[in-house]
Amino acid sequence: MHNYQEINVLKETRRNASMAVNAIDALMGKVYNQEFAYELASQKNRFQEFERKAEAGLWQHGLMARKAILDKAMLWGAIQANTMLNISTPHVADMMIQGNTRGIAELMKVKHNNKNTGSFANELAEELMDFEEENIERLKRFL
């Protein structure tokens, strides 16, 4: 049971970080504010670290993280539709704030449903949620 719950938390942590990386990749070509672009690039690098750490944790359980191609395509389509008429910095910042908020909520749900996890998975998920909260605060200045 402990193993299964740890794997669930690690999978969600990886998925969460991966979605953020994909969202930033899809948005970067639409960002024209240099300071905002630098902020997003910095966030992307940190999300990639979380993704790698979660993948390493899954690897220790004998699992290889698989790429969610359909999720990536759906995210890309949603971002294209959402930025079709508005690519202003405040609009893109708001989209990123909403994404970070959803990420926190999803991680909280998974942690709540998988309480018997090891410290690595638990700490990594907590660290990612803290990072997403910090992102929200930093992104507010671009609204």
Can you offer a commentary on this structure?
This protein is mainly α and 143 residues long. It is 80% helix and 0% strand. It contains five helices and no strands. α1 runs parallel beside α3 (69-82) and α1 (2-28) packs antiparallel against α4 (89-113). It is elongated, with a radius of gyration of 15 Å.
Q: Give the integer mean of the pLDDT values.
A: 93
Can you tell me the residue ranges where pLDDT is under 50 for at least 5 consecutive residues?
none
Can you write the helix and strand succession as a string?
HHHHH
Shape: elongated
Largest sheet: none
Q: Note the beta-strand portion.
A: under 5%
- Overall strand count: 0
Number of distinct helices: 5
Structural Rg: 15 Å
Q: What is the structural class?
A: mainly alpha
How is the topology of this model organized?
Elements: H1 2-28, H2 34-60, H3 69-82, H4 89-113, H5 119-139
In short:
Helices cover 80% and strands 0% of the residues. It is built from 5 helices and no strands. It is elongated.
List its salient traits.
143 residues; mainly alpha; 0% strand
